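>> received
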Amino acid sequence: MHIMSNYDMDISHQQLPQHLKKNLLSRYWLQSDDAFLRYDTQQLLNETFKAKGFEIKPLILSSTADWAHLEALTCTADLFSPKRCIVVDASSLKLSASFARQWQSICQQTHPSISLCLNTGRLTAAQKKTKWYQTLPQQGCISIWPLNSQQYQQWAKLTAQRQGLTLSTHAFDQLSQLTLSDPKATSDLLKKLSLMYLEHEIIHPKQLHLAYAHHSSSSTFDLIDATLCGQTELAFKHFESLKMQPQIAIALWGLFNHTLKQLLQAQPALSQGQSITQVVRTLSRNPKEQARLNPALKRLTPSSLEHIQSQLWSLELSIKGLIPLEPLHIVKEIILQYSRPHHV
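>> returned
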């Protein structure tokens, strides 16, 4: 995983946080076929832009109408407008000379107070040699490659640091075994640890296994299954049997958040006309997980997913004691949001 920019820099993924402390560029282009690693890198960029006072505006680019919407967003700003970072997901589009012309036009007209982050699939060596690619504005071009064993360890340590976690050497070894070195599973487990333990508390294997056991509880999966299948009454029946368990809010936060990431990742492909069945197969090879995602994608709209994302953020703040709301009350609201129909 490495980063290239038009300043002749070649920055590894491990150096990205340090780079962002010194040089926050106005254009970033994330190139990867790994949807989760692209998402994870974009989250790091979003955190940095937010800390600098930027408002994050996501936009899925999949049609001519979307290009027109992007053009309107990038050229309208005044003295009273907040600084904005527009995150453009073009991962479902074919990268070609036509795409390059449109993107170049957008970059040229973008207001100085607006930053752009473009997310696409990985470019081939042949594409990078084309004339249209060479003439594109490539400030902050980030190429994200699949992680080998050594890169996974470096990425996991960096992700743990971002969560304020310190894992013992043995805990890190166990982490890769429990998650099978899968970045998405690792990220979910580390986030759960950050909610369960104090910042910079040293995490040992016993604590790691406790967090993992909560995530793998069959009872919590029964609740998730019922919720995503729209069986609200059954979901609340499972909730009543679970609510007295210690740290159950954290366990459910982890599972709901994992599912939300998958549902959000599905949206670009669905907007391109792919069937739900096709999309679900790309999200997971697990038949049980596919059975959860299929009915959820039929019911939930992009706007309802945004609302659930906001509720999960409130749940995280509540668990940390940063807002005066009862975590289990928010869990009930999330169950309702996930399980009720939003469109036919």
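>> The domain at 149-339 is CATH 1.20.272.10 (Zinc Finger, Delta Prime; domain 3).
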